[in-house]
Amino acid sequence: MQSVHTVYQRISACLAVFNNILLIILIIYKSHRKVGKYKFLMIYISTFEIFYALVDAFGAPTIFTKDSIFLVVTYSDQVFLPDYFLKSFVELYCVFYGISMAIFAIHFIYRYLIVSENKFATKYESQVIFGLLTFPLLFGMFWLWLVRTFISPFPEADEYFMKNHLDENGINITNVKYAGVYFWPAGKDGENNLHWRSSIGIMIMTVAIVISFALILVFGFKCYCKTKQMIQSAPESTSFTKLQSQLFYALVFQTAIPVILMHIPASIAFSASFFNVSNEYLGDWCSITICLYPTLDPLPNFFMIKNYREAILNAFRTFLRKIIQCKGAKVGVQTATESEMISTSHSAAPTN
Q: How do residues 307-320 score in pLDDT, each as one tens digit?
């Protein structure tokens, strides 16, 4: 039987797929011509978020935290696909988390190259975009290696997980797959000792994410300064300047969403686990907020980019107009029918 959390994940995933497909359609058909090849990067984000949502929908990964343990777990009775895919869903979930910031970093780099009118980027735009699109894939392969090498299951984690969660819920460990860290397992002497393999893996992952954040902050600030300079130097706000401003602020809010919903909750939970003070509520909190990320992330584009906003509003107005017309037609038919019935009854009435 599906848990409440799994149902919630799948509803969120369906909304995420709808929102991102709608955004892709708007990008392809309603983008301003001056958006240019940046459309490919925008579609790239939406495609990534669709796959993220599909992992949530089919694998229903959850996060378990308690004391010094932090695990990403999939259960055989919650997945839509055969048990063979349990491990793959765990790994994909971890990899997507890792590369989420890298994807936004390449966007800020490209945005800065465009607004600064970089000659190399202008001359070799296709090659630059290809290189930027390739980087998250390579980064994802590196992250997968980290997951398999440093935060894969080990006996002490198995024992703790069974004792503190699986046995209490009547679940056999053969029916779950997980990846994660157990910072302070009990040693043979009964003392809690730092698990160095997991700790080194988390340290490398943290450095990788910090580098992604640093790139976002540096190129985001540069892009902001250059965009502001363009607006101030232009005698009038040109369509190009307005468009660059809209794209920049939409990207800022798009980046803020995974930071707030994914990285801040996960960082708090990781820190609590490291200091051996975590509890199960932190894991539940992370699981709930993380699956909202692909659902909410397309929304800034809908509201902030003028072409997309107008297209949605026009479609909504057309939809309402058709509903009103249909209701009007039904009322008209009903009125005509009633008039005909009244006329018939009058003509059929006996005369004195």
A: 999 999 999 998 88
* Amino acid, res. 232: Q
271-to-67, 95, 280 alpha-carbon distances in Å: 11, 20, 14
Please give the model's pTM, rounded to 2 decimal places. Answer: 0.88
Would you state the pLDDT for residue 217?
A: 92
Whether the CA torsion 72, 78, 80, 82 is positive or negative: it is positive
Q: Which helix (H) or strand (E) holds 180?
A: strand 176-182
What value does the mean pLDDT take over residues 91-102?
92
Which residues are CB-contacts of 195 (< 8 A; sequence separation ≥ 6)? 154, 156, 181, 182, 183, 184, 185
For residues 121-137, give the mean pLDDT: 90
Beta bridge partners of 176: 75
- Taking the chain, what is the end-to-end CA distance rounded to the nearest angstrom? 75
Which tokens belong to 111? 């945005």
List beta partners, residue 179. 72
Answer for the pair 195, 203: CB distance below 8 angstroms, yes or no: no
Distance CA 103, CA 93 (A): 15
Per-residue pLDDT reduced to its tens digit, 265-300: 999 999 999 999 999 999 999 999 999 999 999 999
**Residue 96: which of 129, 131, 47, 130 has the closest Cα?**
47
CA distances 236 to 33, 233, 347, Å, are: 20, 9, 73
Nearest of 66, 73, 51, 71 to residue 6 by alpha carbon: 73
